[in-house]
Amino acid sequence: MKTSITIDVAKCQKLLLEGELVAIPTETVYGLAANALDSKAVKRIFEMKGRPAFNPLIVHIHQMEQLPVLAKDIPQKAYDLAEAFWPGSLTLILPKQDIVPEIITGGKSTVGVRMPKHPLTQELLKGLPFPLAAPSANPFTRVSPTSAQHVWDYFGDRIPAILDGGPCQVGLESTIIGFDGEIPILYRKGGIPKEAIEAVVGELRVSTENETSPEAPGMLLKHYSPRTPLMVCDDIGEALKQYYDKRIGVLSFFEEDFPMATKVITLSKNKMMEEAAMSLFEALHTLDKSGLDLILAERFPEKGLGSSINDRLFRAQN
Ligand code: TXA
Ligand code: MG
């Protein structure tokens, strides 16, 4: 198969209507999309990613009217969050309607729904008679793609098209919120900081570390992993001294000066957390291709997006 990296939305719509997979840009990360109402097409997503069947997929919509078609018993706080953050990096887990195929939800009675903000994907969704199921477009446990090139590096000619929307502007997967009745639960830290969610719905219950029976396997402890071993540390300069005989890559927040390192990537020289988040996965992809023995990643300040970045770094560490 010849994959096209394309900006031709109509061509991607045609492929999706035919039951094919298409990689799509979103503001968070690239997704591997198929018709959410077509179990056969959705099954191919799982096969392509090597993803276990118990790990459910997010369904992407473009207008609010689609939400009650997919989900029921929607608490007011879910509407408040949708109002505040959609379109954007927020996924809501809600009781599913019968129309949502079992394969999407991994047999669960709930469905994850998100309205993405990327204009190209909004245009794509508007011209389709169905919503799109899309996990991040990476093989299971690997680092999520934030450019069309990353998707191509992973899947090469195994998918017919990659809709190229440029580099992802948020760069971290969506924040996932579920509900126990009216009480909101944070399942995955992500592109919208916890504090911003709390400003809308009050305090959250946090449930991001349930390893044995993952509600959201974004929680699986090994996840987002480069092939190169990675270690999170507080003092990179000190850690470098221990590994003087190794080829070390450094991933730092804003400092640039690490003479003992083989390669240094600084995520935001101006200490801008949004910029750091946006550049994180690109940096991990680059370091992973640099023939290093070890990546030393600096721990971020544990607040706002820094907390979401730390989450990804800790899961990448293994
Ligand atoms: O930003 C994003 O969310 C990206 C873009 C493409 O939209 N998608 C993404 O999908 O990160 P994925 O499949 O890589 O991660 C989705 C997470 C998984 O951890 C999955 O377990 C969880 O959402 N999830 C989906 N439906 C769920 C459900 N019904 N109950 C609990 N967790 C659910
Ligand atoms: Mg993923």
UniProtKB/TrEMBL annotation:
L-threonine binds at T28, H60, R114, A134, S174. It comes from Maribacter algicola. Required for the formation of a threonylcarbamoyl group on adenosine at position 37 (t(6)A37) in tRNAs that read codons beginning with adenine. Its EC number is 2.7.7.87. Belongs to the SUA5 family. This is Threonylcarbamoyl-AMP synthase. ATP binds at R51, N55, T110, S136, S144, R188, Y224. GO terms for molecular function: ATP binding; double-stranded RNA binding; L-threonylcarbamoyladenylate synthase; tRNA binding.
